[in-house]
Amino acid sequence: MAQRKPRLAVFKFTSCDGCQLSLLDCEDELLAVAERVEIAHFLEASSRVLPGPYDIGLVEGSISTPAQVEEIRRVREACRLLVTIGACATAGGIQALRNAADVAEYQRLIYPAPEQIRALERSTPVADHVAVDFELRGCPIDKGQLMELLSALLNRRCPRLARHAVCVECKARGAVCLAVAGGGPCMGPVTQAGCGALCPAHGRPCYGCFGPKENANVDALVHWWRHVQGVERAQIAAQLQNFNAAAAAFEDAARRLEGEK
Amino acid sequence: MSGETTIRVDYLARVEGEGALHVRYDQNGVREVRLEIFEPPRFFEALLRGRNALEAPDITARICGICPVAYQMSAVHAVEAALEVQVPEEIRRLRRLLYCGEWIESHVLHVAMLHAPDFFELPSAVELARLQPAVVRDALALKKAGNAIVALLGGREIHPINVRVGGFWRLPRAGELAELARSLPAARERAEALVHFAASLEPPPFPRPKPYLFVALRHEEEYPMCGGVLSTSDGRSFDPGQFEDHFLEHQVPHSNALHCLLEGREPYLVGPLARFHLNFAKLAPTARALAEAVGARPPRPNPFGSILVRALEVLHAVETAQEILADYRQPAVAAVPLAAKAGRGAAITEAPRGILYHRYDLDEKGRILEAKIVPPTSQNQRTIEEDLRFLLDGLLGEDSDLVRRRCEQAIRNHDPCISCATHFLRLDLERVEEVP
Ligand code: SF4
Fold first, then answer.
1. Quick check: is B164 in a domain?
2. pLDDT: which is higher, B410 or B108
3. Are B179 and B310 in contact, with CB atoms under 8 Å apart?
4. Residue pLDDT, tens place only, B179-202
5. Mutant choice from A42, A47, A137 vs B, greatest count of B C-beta within 10 A
6. Per the structure, how many domains does chain B have?
7. Measuring CA to CA, how many Å separate B228 from each of A1, B31, B223, B225, B272?
8. Rounded to whole angstroms, how far apart are CA atoms A24 and A159?
9. B42 within ligand 1 shell (Cβ under 6 A)
């Protein structure tokens, strides 16, 4: 029997399309990838849609409407391996800022006839709904990590994805440590690596778009900012509440900060 | 008696975001055309309330992964207007350079990977690469050149981290800019090749009985990107600050995106065709000369020919990037100092898909009281629906597969970014048929 090519599928939920665009942005590798896999479902790139099952499903976006709750189950059933890509899919994304707000009020603010708009109260990560096999962090994901993941899966090995903090990448590239040099509230110590310490290398405090690293001690960092560096509470809250606001470690720390008032 | 035949295609592919097209027609004509945008709302304007205005560029970038620079550019200009700060000319030039990168990257993606396959009746650029390997490889290399500009100025291609209100976090180093400049002659050759390729494609005939009403910025010296006066093809002009007095948004039952109409009633078109029509004389010299050589002067009313205009804008952007780099002077500071104050600021810049309006009202601590964002796709939505209506009039009686393909292509003519408009395309063709 001839070996058939693994089938790759890309699915979109509530998102900005940036993470799936990362695949098209792999200009040097794209055609090679297309040789190795059959692109079976990738609406942004191809109007040819093959039915499942799929070997690898990349899922972008958070779950934020009643229909998506159903849809993600169908996607899960159709995919042998399901990989969530990006902060929307892994943590609910920037749109999860509404989780702490009144959605009906949001709808009234934007739409003259809000009753026509269907949206859930909360924007949630894919893993809240179905089992996830791998996740790629970031807003957006890193192209290098995406290629590593795909080549690992195609070669049947485990992807090598860093789980340490951005700080390690900062040291590796010789960037000045902003936490020590007083460069503002840098999220590096509690944020998972993967970006290559991009913001610190540009003299900008990390804003945590790769989400919390394993066992992050966010409270200790918040304490350091407040009592040693004298950072304003509002600025700390903004750092915790952006693209990964609904990730447990950041959400809890933000809640405690709020409670301290 | 009449019966109904429904032809469904679940998603419209090769557009950014998700939406559906609903068409009802019978042998007498088109009954209804609705471009449905189901992309779930993300409530950006609401969640910006209470945030520091300095966060607006990073937060609004997440509206669209395809044109984040456009969001960042409209946001920084609007917030700077509210704070009454002016950035030095050198910073403005670096911003234009960054914007050139996004125009190149976004337009090439659309021209070669999303739109060109239509002209060969292929499902995607992967199949096109088998038929026309040189075209696709060159396009990928060109797209990469655009991405390299964005990555150098912005730190990364998608959701750049180096842009801030007042300027940049870090200025590019002289050596990095020199290396970029060395890479651009090859990009320019590829852009010229892309123009020739686009010019070789035969657009399907489309006699539009009603001319487009084009809306674009117009700038005294430049083909517009950042800055300029809002102008229409019938001679009206507005200050960007007056946008909301003339361009009114409506909610329609079938879409999560708001429709925008001029003076509350006139559909209009923004984007490459509009810019080209209103600013042809300002195109960079090689781009203009090549446009003349391939016979692409305005007016170019056939939207299926927009692929050529996009290719010309790519060449223009490469050339402009080269010009900016040739007389680059390093800004004295990476960013000008800012002081919080209450106020209102609005700005329009030319995203690859057309004008993008941002307006912010700030309190005395620089927090956002109210935000308003009008993206290009919601402005074009009504005009795209009109296109489909006129197109279908000429296709009645044709095979439904052809009708569906033409409709999809007609939508792609305007490169709708449904992520921007909010987003999700599903094509739902319904033919109301006479039962024999
Ligand atoms: S994680 Fe960020 S880049 Fe990815 S889809 Fe969501 S908003 Fe876009």
1. yes
2. B108
3. no
4. 999 999 999 999 999 999 999 999
5. A47
6. 1
7. 64, 40, 9, 8, 16
8. 20
9. no
Q: Give the domain range for residue B297.
A: 44-421
Residue B27 belongs to some domain of the structure: no
- Per-residue pLDDT at B160: 98
Q: Let me know if residue B174 belongs to a domain.
A: yes
CATH topology for A7-154 is Rossmann fold (3.40.50)
Q: Is the C-beta atom of A125 inside 6 A of ligand 1?
A: no
3-state secondary structure of A39: strand
Give the nearest chain A residue to B370 (CA atoms): A109
In degrees and rounded to multiples of 5, residue B237 shows phi and psi of -145, 150
Tell me how many residue pairs between chain A and chain B have CB atoms under 8 A apart: 178
Domain boundaries, chain A: 7-154, 166-259
Domain membership of residue B435 (yes or no) is: no
Measuring CA to CA, how many Å separate B196 from each of A145, B134, B308? 36, 13, 9
Atom of ligand 1 nearest to the CA of A140: 3
Q: Do A27 and B143 touch (CB under 8 A)?
A: yes
Confidence grade of residue B10 (pLDDT, cut at 50, 70, 90): very low
**Which CATH number covers residue B83?**
1.10.645.10
Give the best residue of B34, B102, B104, B126 to mutate against chain A (max A CB count within 10 A): B126
pTM of the model: 0.93
Residues of chain A below pLDDT 70: 1-2, 103, 106-118, 261
Rounded to a whole number, what is the distance in Å from the CA of A44 to chain B's nearest CA? 4
Instruction: Write out chain A residues lying below 8 Å of B124, CB-based.
Output: 39, 42, 45-48
